[in-house]
Write a sequence for this structure.
């Protein structure tokens, strides 16, 4: 069965600094990896995905993520954080076929002005 | 295109009652998934439907059920409500097919409170 780990419950970063939100996964076969963001009292918004191809994936709002097969990681990054990036971030993985999408516990990002 | 819509947005029920939540997917999307979100357990998968067939089911008791209609709209039902069922219920739609590669688009959720 597939699983996702987000080792940090909370990440704090100063505005303008680079940010990284960590994610590692476990899946049989090739993974399909996703990042979502949730703002207060809202549903989840899709940020980006890795299906195949280039290991560096670019997504919405200036976010990108790097797929590392040997480390089974898919860390979310942004070169310069904004206060408006403060939210709850979820990493998710799906195995081949029609297996369910499995989410990590989420990481709360706080960007401080 | 209109996004995923969920009704109602807020619901208060009493223990032992039953509840039905509704989800309308994005036009053209054939797959609908349901999740339960709580502060303690995070996001837990309930079930996924594709073309009116349940494709996957999470580890929830039989009190939780769902269905999908021919227009891809979906409903989930919870019978004999318990206090622990209080949560945000999220619906998500995707193009489906070989579902792994498609991202899901989420609705705003239904906040269920059981008293």
């Amino acid at each position: 069965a597939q699983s996702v780990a987000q080792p940090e419950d909370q990440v704090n970063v100063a505005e303008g600094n680079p940010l990284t939100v960590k994610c590692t996964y476990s899946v049989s076969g090739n993974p399909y990896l996703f990042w979502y963001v949730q703002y207060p009292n809202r549903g989840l918004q899709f940020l980006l995905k890795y299906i195949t191809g280039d290991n560096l994936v670019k997504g919405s709002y200036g976010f990108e993520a790097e797929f590392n097969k040997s480390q089974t990681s898919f860390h979310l990054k942004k070169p310069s954080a904004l206060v408006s990036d403060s939210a709850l971030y979820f990493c998710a993985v799906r195995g081949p076929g029609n297996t369910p999408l499995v989410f990590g516990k989420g990481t709360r990002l706080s960007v401080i002005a | 295109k209109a996004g995923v819509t969920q009704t109602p947005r807020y619901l208060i029920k009493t223990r032992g009652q039953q509840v039905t939540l509704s989800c309308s997917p994005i036009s053209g999307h054939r797959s609908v998934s349901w999740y339960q979100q709580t502060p303690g357990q995070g996001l837990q998968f309930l079930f996924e439907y594709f073309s009116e067939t349940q494709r996957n089911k999470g580890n929830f008791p039989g009190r939780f059920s769902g269905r999908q209609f021919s227009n891809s709209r979906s409903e989930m039902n919870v019978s004999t409500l318990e206090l622990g069922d209080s949560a945000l219920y999220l619906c998500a739609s995707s193009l489906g097919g070989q579902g792994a590669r498609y991202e899901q688009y989420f609705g705003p959720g239904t906040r269920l409170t059981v008293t």
